Amino acid sequence: MELHTLSLTEAAAALRRGETTSVELTRALLGRIEAHNPALNAFLTVTGEWALELARRADGRIQSGAASPLTGIPLAIKDVICVQGVPATAGSLILKGYRPPYHATVIEKLLAAGVVILGKTNTDEFAMGSSTENSAYGVTHNPWDPTRVPGGSSGGSAAAVAAGLAFGALGSDTGGSVRQPAAFCGVVGLKPSYGRVSRYGLIAFASSLDQIGVFARTAEDAALLLGAIAGHDPRDGTSMPTPVPDYAAQLQSGGSPVGGQSLRGLRVGLPKEYFVSGVEADVSTAVSAAVKVLEGLGAQAREVSLPHTEQALSVYYIIAPAEASANLARFDGVRYGARADAPTLWDEYRQTRGAGFGAEVKRRIMLGTYALSTGYYDAYYLQAQKVRTLIKGDFDSAFDDVDVIACPTSPTTAFKIGEKADDPLAMYLADVFTLPANLAGIAGVSVNCGFDRAGLPVGLQLLGPAFIEDRLLRVAHVFQQTTEWHTKVPAL
Ligand code: GLN
Questions:
Q1: For residues 302 and 306, what is the distance between their CA atoms, to the nearest angstrom?
Q2: According to a count of CB atoms within 10 Å of the terminal CB, is the N or C end of the chain lower?
Q3: What is the mean pLDDT of residues 265-278?
Q4: Rounded to an integer, what distance in angstroms lies between the CA atom of residue 373 and that of residue 377?
Q5: Please, which residues bridge with residue 447 across strands?
Q6: Nearest Cα to Cα of residue 142 among 433, 461, 456
Q7: Mean pLDDT, residues 291-320 taken together
Q8: Domains of the chain by start residue, with CATH
Q9: What is the mean pLDDT of residues 429-439?
């Protein structure tokens, strides 16, 4: 049995039946990381010894019958999430050598469930980017074509799952950073609603948009992961007390308004602003075919309108940099990571930040500081917040008429490394279809729905109202039960 080809759910079943052990699974994946990570650069840190120790503990737990479905499952963690004692770089030189003294809440929860942590994955610096090219530690290569980007900013997590180096992974999504790399790498990527998952221990980029999300090869696997990390956390004032459903159980029956393996009665909205020129022909073709599959299962597709879509990119690139400029003020060389040796405090700040931050991060800090400065605050930040409310209103109206929205995750498939690296605006456009969901605080998932003529995966994005992740997961699951895209794996 090729252990790494199992889905997370299959691996969990094999563990429970005693057909394999967590140590065996962990050794198999550590072996694959050793073989393939030098070419992919998906992992920045591999915690091999700790992983094996966690695996031995998990095996003990499984034998004693005290296991949960995730016990003994090896996972990867994006390097913006704090794991106590393990380097957390956020893809930045400024955090080189930083080891968090505490676990993020999501890590505490996963460890309590008995997972095995394989290591930390590559990311655009402070999660700012769409290609992983903004990492200070080198680009991650797309497992489907190493000359192409894996997407970003959670490119390392997406590539690790696609390449069979982990059964699942955590990422973060501020404007698309889970869904877009999931699309580029052909895996499932779910961004929960704002407030669904605690952000405590997530290195902040834009606090009103950030949300931790999950990667896996199937919606079923993603359901298990989301169930393990979701829920209220007193340490994150924006996390919500909304009860956490049993997402895995809901796949079979629940997730109103439909049950069973049919999608009868499900109303699917196709936003007319998302099916426009600028979307690659192969992406349109694959997404339209996927909508036909949903219709074949009983869903009714109809056009909806999200009239403020055109403003979303501008709004995001005011709000996200504004929040980032405030969040990144803490990296002053005194409290965290790297510190320049300089004669005065001001020199120390200037040199630490000058050398520690990369070009994109500096660009965001400047944009954000400008937008928040006296005289410009009303013209930019306040205005952007007002339009943000209109964008949320667009989704509220659409969800009066439909249960989910279906659209491309990204207008293109994975682009070449270097292709957009010198053109920030072209790079920002990679997220036009994902960032409105962050502005509105709603949930979204990307699921592989085919390939373009170059053999690169295409993502179908499903969006739903806040806190109905169960519905999105169920639609993605039923889609995967009917199609075989998720069974395709890249040849490494
Ligand atoms: N690509 C977007 C940006 O650069 C979104 C990143 C993210 O979701 N973290 O801001």
A1: 13
A2: N
A3: 92
A4: 6
A5: 460
A6: 456
A7: 97
A8: 3-306+394-487 (3.90.1300.10)
A9: 95
List, by residue number, the catalytic residues: 78, 153, 177
Contact (CB, 8 A) for 130 and 176: yes
- Assess whether the C-beta atom of 127 lies below 6 angstroms from ligand 1: yes
Give the residue carrying structure tokens 């699921």: 447
Residues 6+ apart with CB under 8 A from 322: 206, 367, 368, 371, 372, 380, 381, 384
CB 194 within 8 A of CB 443: no
Q: Is 431 in the pocket of ligand 1 (CB under 6 A)?
A: yes
N-term to C-term CA, the chain: 18
The tokens for 329 are: 């003020």
321 CA → ligand 1 middle, Å? 10
Is 178 near ligand 1, meaning CB less than 6 Å away?
no
Distance 176 CA to ligand 1 centre (A): 6
- State in Å: Cα 205 to ligand 1 middle: 9
Atom of ligand 1 nearest to the CA of 176: 8
Q: Residue 244: how many CB atoms within 10 A of its CB?
A: 17
Q: Tell me the whole-structure pTM to 2 decimals.
A: 0.97
Ligand 1 pocket test, pick from 131, 199, 431 with the greatest ligand atom count within 8 Å of Cβ, gives 431
Confidence (pLDDT) at 260: 60
The half-sphere exposure of 304 on its side-chain side, counting CA atoms within 13 A, is: 25
What is the C-alpha to C-alpha distance for residues 471 and 136, in angstroms, rounded to an integer?
38
Measure Cα distances from 376 to 206, 339, 381 in Å.
19, 32, 8
Token pair 């400047």 is found at 366
Contact between 156 and 78 under an 8 Å Cβ cutoff? The reply is yes
pLDDT tens across 26-36, in order?
999 999 999 99
Condensed to tens digits (0 to 9), the pLDDT of residues 80-132 reads 999 999 999 999 999 999 999 999 999 999 999 999 999 999 999 999 999 99
CA–CA gap between residue 405 and residue 85 (Å, rounded): 41
Cβ of 193 below 6 Å from ligand 1: no
Ligand 1 atom closest to Cα of residue 316: 10
Cβ distance 273 to 306 under 8 Å? yes
